């Protein structure tokens, strides 16, 4: 590889919960994509930006590709496929602790059909969860199944930080020489309100064993600086609305006596303060928008 500056767009794909968002955050070195052990938690194309002296990787984080059951599902899939055809490298994520299944093969077929000329590498994720022997077995299985079309196969653990530098080098090796797309120091091009909404959504999904992920949307209603604060100690008032589809789900989000919503608010506020670098007063309200996932008007209003 020459010393020329390289840049390009990279997208991680795979079944839900294969570690795509965690990998994005590990490469960027800061939280820009929400992570959750619930499938279908990423809704927006959040770009994380990896800067080094001689390259810039722009990571495009998409929802997991899945067989859609609702209008929201169809729109998310369209977003994913559009992204596939526009990036330079696709990293196909397969976890080390699960066998290759029909879902993986289906996604591989979709990638091959939509983006036949895009460079494909396979990333075997979550290697910290299994023994070295198991990792080796998975790498052999991946080679047999997808090796003919994959330019590289890289095992990593994003949570343990293993092989992240190796993966970075591999990604850069497949990018063309070109200019930086974003100024040095910028980590994402998503508006702060989108990131705030995603952080609130992540906190609300934590520990919920219901079908809530698909039914929860967060809209930032208002962001304003609190008046009369000293200049060296500003406070930002953030008001957000959490939309669910049914009254029963509203009860789950709020919890007994509002206890769960307070926990969500505390967890999200800490993350938002880290993101913005300033104190935040966070006010959360929960509203029911009946069957919003199937209603084009409501989908539009909620940002989809």
From TrEMBL:
Subcellular location: Cell envelope; Secreted, Cell wall
A GO-annotated cellular component: cytosol
Residue span(s) of domain Era-type G: 6-177
GO biological process, one term: ribosomal small subunit assembly
Keyword annotations from UniProtKB, A to Z: Cell wall, GTP-binding, Nucleotide-binding, RNA-binding, Secreted
Domain KH type-2: start-end pairs: 208-290
Family: Belongs to the TRAFAC class TrmE-Era-EngA-EngB-Septin-like GTPase superfamily. Era GTPase family.
Function description: Exhibits GTPase activity. Binds RNA but is probably not involved in ribosome assembly in mycobacteria.
Name of this protein: GTPase Era
Organism lineage string: Bacteria, Bacillati, Actinomycetota, Actinomycetes, Mycobacteriales
